[in-house]
Every structure is written in structure tokens, then in C-alpha cells.
Amino acid sequence: MKLAMQWRWSTAAIMVAAGIATLSSPSHAAPTRNACDVAKEYLRLTEMQQYDRIGDLWADDAVFYAPNGQTIRGRHAIGDFYSAFLKKITPVNRIGSLTFDRRARRCALEIETRVVRGPSGEWVPDAKGEFVGTVIDLFTVNRKGKITRMKVYLAPLPKD
Fold first, then answer.
1. 4, containing H or E segment
2. CATH 3.30.43.10 fits 31-154, yes or no
3. Mind giving me the DSSP string for 18-86?
């Protein structure tokens, strides 16, 4: 009996150390979703044009660094921004690449968007266009799987 109990504790310790299992203590609990899971959900919501639900992905005290240089603070303000902004452009996006940093709870999501050349030569979202890398979003999530910080980096679009 004593040997069996030691074996169970040893096995549990090895599994925790290897990352196969987690401790049940709330201070050591694994996030419910990792940063790339959240990034994929973010993209799924934009694809489904469920812009009003994007705010639910954010922590109450989140900070969003928009590509226009604006800093938006708080889940509700960020949700309002996305509801208004994405409804205007209705992009068709897909994942270009994902890079996950487990220790920092971060994910870099490269987004490709269907775009066409507009009448004055600028690139604009259009469902009939070609997929082009348009932005890289850097997500940081808390242990509850909510976005605490996101930065958007614009990618240069093709000259031709």
C-alpha cells in the first residue's frame, strides 16, 4: 500500500513537471484557453461577422493598441470599437501563421485578408480579391483565457 501511494505521487509529480498535468490549486491552474485558441476564436468571430461578440474575448481591464495609433482601454470600449469598425469593412480573413509563446501567454497571429485595388489605387477588403498578408496581431491572455493586451501591426501591401 505504501509503495503504491509513493508510485502515484511520483507519477503525478513527473506529469506536472512534464506539463502533462497541472496542479489543482487555483494559483497554479492552467489557463482555460491558450493565447492562440483565443486568437483563432477572434478570427472565427470576424469570419462569422459576429462582431458584437468580440468584446467577450477581452478582460475587463484590457488594453488594445489599434493600427491607427489609438489606445482603447476596457472590454466594453474595445467591443464597441470592433462592432463599429468591422461592420464598415466586413473583411474576409484567414490565418497566415500562428506563433505561440506558452510562458508569456502570447500568440502572434498573421492575418491574410482578401483585398482588391480600389478606384484611387488603395487596397480595400473585397470577398472577390486575393489573400494578402495585412496585419499581425499580438495577443496576450490572462490565466482565465481573456485577452489582456493586443497590438495590431500593419503589414505593407503589394505595390502592384
1. helix 2-17
2. no
3. TTSS--SSGGGPPPSS-HHHHHHHHHHHHHTT-GGGGGGGEEEEEEEE-TTS-EEESHHHHHHHHHHHH
DSSP code at position 121:
S
Residue carrying the nine cell digits 497554479? 28
Q: Which three cell numbers stand for residue 74?
A: 476596457
Phi, psi angle pair for 9, to nearest 5°: -65, -40
Hey, where are the domains in the chain? 1-30, 31-154
pTM: 0.74
pLDDT per residue as tens digits for the range 115-159 = 888 898 888 888 888 999 999 999 999 999 999 999 999 988 877
Classify 120 as helix, strand or coil: coil
